[in-house]
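Fold description:
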Amino acid sequence: FALSEPGNGSDAGAASTTAQLEGDEWVLNGTKAWITNAWEASATVVFATTDRALKHKGISAFLVPMPCLGLSLGKKEDKLGIRASSTANLIFEDCRIPKENLLGSQGMGFKIAMQTLDSGRIGIACQA
């Protein structure tokens, strides 16, 4: 679940990671931060801006296989808790994925993210 970005704080609607459609592929560029299980995952859901003019309504969701050409992993973060899983940045540099990897429709990413967070809050509360 790759939503957070360095420098954006808690503003999930301010995604600076971009996805541009080029032919039959989406090209992703940007960095996602604090990704749980980054080093263990075989895929991730990435939220990226496809239309900056629409602000949060211009964010779309993508399924990105891992590993993937153009996607690199940052260093494993040292944490105080939940140390059994890795946490790292995902760095996208002209990462190309098939256009079919768009989840839902273009511009629905923010809504998908908020619905996912709503259902996950009870689990996070249980970890406190």
